[in-house]
Amino acid sequence: METSVVRTICLVLLVMLGFRKVMRAKLSEQTGADLVLLLSSSALATAAVLMPEKPLLPILVPLMLLILIDRSRLWIDHFISHGSSYEPLPHYVKQAKKKETEKEVYMPRSGLALIEKGKVRNDNLARIGKTQFWLRRELRKFGYRNIRQVNYLTIDALGNFYMDLNQFMH
Fold this sequence. Notes:
170 residues; CRO Repressor; 2 domains; four-stranded antiparallel beta sheet; elongated
């Protein structure tokens, strides 16, 4: 039991210090190589803790090698960037940022709130290129004449409305 506790503390500190740059970065800024190195090192550390009867040295050598590889990122980045397209893993995040800079409408998965607490969100209307007049006309199509009848209204990327009605104004 004591061996597992000591190993856990030492290996957690070693992984945290060895991969501190990777652990500080956002997921969208990490590359596939970063994630592979981090997951491999955590698997080695887990194996060392789960098997306290085995010697630590055969696990420390590959773990230190992974840390060494991560530390020599300039050389590896230079080598990989000339060989293939080198792009961070979640490329959809970059695409979303690119769309926002190109003045295209970026619609979050949950939709864009157009009315909150019975009040129109003019900033979000402007993001989709619509006016309050358009919103009032759309609400009239559903039979709502007063915006205060709607507590919350969102629009998704396909143009579907999702609304929560104000319980006092039915």
